Amino acid sequence: MTRPSLARRPLARRALIHRLGFTLIELIVVLAIIGLLASLVAPRYVRSVDNAREASLRTSLNVMRDALDKHVADRGRYPESLDELVLKGYLRQVPEDPLTGRKDSWQMLPPKPDSGVQGRVADVRSGASGRGQNGQPYSSW
Fold first, then answer.
1. How many angstroms separate the CA atoms of 28 and 99, rounded?
2. The whole model's pTM is what?
3. DSSP assignments along 19-45, one per residue
């Protein structure tokens, strides 16, 4: 059995065959809508990623500062480095700075001379440049 050629098929059937795809205008409209939605969502996504990094930084700083306080209370002096906190069991590991992505970028501040406590690390700050969403530099948190 042979199939009739396209020219012999009824007109309505030929129109249906030609109408199966999308026109260029329809594709452009759909791409414009997708682009508009992406431009609305992208800034919110970036902001939420920044919020998560800042929350992680606050948590890491709080954990390390708490470990420093416990070390001073137990040993009567500040540690010589963050690695000493790990060796003595106050931290499982030195956390990664969520803004720089490195463990060695933390800024370690010495104790105040009038504190009378020995050691080299009394406080920890982030080594990241830039400012947080609150306007304060990360290095002052």
1. 39
2. 0.72
3. TSS--HHHHHHHHHHHHHHHHHHHHHH
Q: Is 51 a domain residue?
A: yes
Contact present, 98 and 141 (Cβ < 8 Å): no
**Is 46 inside a domain boundary?**
yes
Name the maximum alpha-carbon separation found in the chain. Answer: 104
CA dihedral 24, 29, 34, 37 (to 10 degrees): 170
Residue 69 is encoded by which pair of tokens? 């306080």
- Count up the domains in the chain and report the number: 1
Q: pLDDT for 32-48, tens place per residue?
A: 999 999 999 998 998 99
Range of the domain at 26: 22-128
Task: Decide: helix, strand or coil at residue 108.
Answer: strand
Identity of the amino acid at 33: I
Q: Tell me the CA end-to-end span of the chain in Å, nearest whole number.
A: 83
Handedness of CA 132, 66, 104, 95 (dihedral sign): negative
